[in-house]
Design the sequence.
């Protein structure tokens, strides 16, 4: 198929070229029915407005797009830095979009990347649904999944074994004698959280004699941890958990703050293990045990895969899996690291 332009969109929608232009630039001037026909035609034809005039067909933009899950999580700041380091060496700049756990925000970032004709895209999918990434791929935009695996093998990807990480954290809590285990994290619609919980369930099931309670949060961060900590502190001592696996360091730190404020001992009353091993983990009031993710290396590897894909679009799909590592500190009875 040849290049799809505004005239083709107008013809399919049964409107004038000026109407299509108004839908794109001044939508308030177009009636709802006409606008709907234009948007349907754009989707059917795969038309992408070419915003910067310098980005003509066949000319590289020198920019890659990067849509990450949530920059409030320290892990993703390191991932971005790793990708930028590799991109700079290749003469590329990085346009970053923060999806902030929202499918709609992620979709807007991907649409913007396409409009600005980025050379390729790094993306941490918010959900298991990869249809938006497939649309980019079908339109000739290389996509590499970051912190997510592609079970179908359609995309290059870089990911951590989060099931293994969840299992590792929970096995450690059980090994130090904890039997009332809580998993704190969410939303569970996010693949990483669901996988960490799956590993946690596996460890509890294999151990025997331990119980698991799942506390799904409605977001990521200190607030979720603090609210959970307040709930635990209000429980009778014989009913509260004696071991908590938090799906991120920020949730673990918020949990720790609430428990210490209530006078509970860590790890005496409640042992805690987080996830990410962010810079904060070793510097909390009680140094936090955490599952380490090699964020910098993951960002670098993802950018390298994308640059390889730009150089050879027909090369075999590559998937790079990193193994988790448990860093034991005082929050679960280990030494400070």
Sequence:
């Amino acid at each position: 198929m040849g290049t799809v332009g505004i005239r083709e969109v107008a013809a399919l929608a049964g409107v004038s070229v000026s109407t299509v232009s108004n839908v794109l630039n001044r939508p308030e001037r177009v009636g709802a029915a006409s606008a709907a026909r234009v948007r349907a035609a754009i989707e059917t034809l795969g038309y992408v407005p070419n915003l910067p005039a310098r980005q003509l067909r066949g000319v590289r933009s020198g920019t890659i797009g990067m849509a990450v899950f949530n920059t409030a999580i320290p892990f993703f700041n390191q991932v971005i830095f790793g990708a930028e380091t590799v991109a700079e060496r290749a003469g590329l700049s990085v346009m970053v979009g923060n999806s902030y756990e929202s499918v709609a925000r992620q979709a807007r970032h991907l649409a913007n990347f396409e409009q600005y004709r980025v050379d390729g895209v790094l993306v941490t999918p918010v959900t298991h649904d990869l249809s938006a990434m497939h649309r980019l791929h079908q339109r000739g935009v290389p996509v590499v999944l970051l912190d997510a695996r592609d079970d179908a093998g359609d995309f290059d990807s870089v990911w951590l074994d989060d099931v293994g990480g969840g299992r590792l954290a929970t096995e450690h809590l059980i090994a130090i004698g904890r039997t009332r285990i809580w998993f704190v994290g969410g939303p569970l619609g996010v693949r990483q959280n669901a996988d960490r919980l799956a590993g946690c369930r596996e460890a509890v099931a294999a151990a025997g004699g331990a119980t698991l309670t799942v506390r799904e949060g409605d977001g990521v961060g200190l607030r979720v941890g603090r609210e959970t900590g307040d709930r635990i502190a209000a429980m009778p001592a014989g009913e509260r958990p004696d071991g908590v696996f938090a799906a991120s360091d920020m949730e673990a730190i918020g949990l720790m703050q609430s428990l210490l404020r209530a006078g509970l001992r860590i790890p005496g009353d409640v042992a805690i293990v987080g996830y990410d091993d962010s810079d904060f983990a070793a510097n909390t009031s009680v140094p936090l045990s955490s599952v380490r993710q090699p964020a910098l290396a993951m960002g670098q590897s993802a950018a390298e895969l994308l640059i390889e894909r730009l150089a050879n679009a027909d090369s075999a799909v590559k998937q790079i899996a990193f193994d988790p590592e448990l860093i034991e500190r005082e929050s679960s009875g280990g030494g400070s690291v």
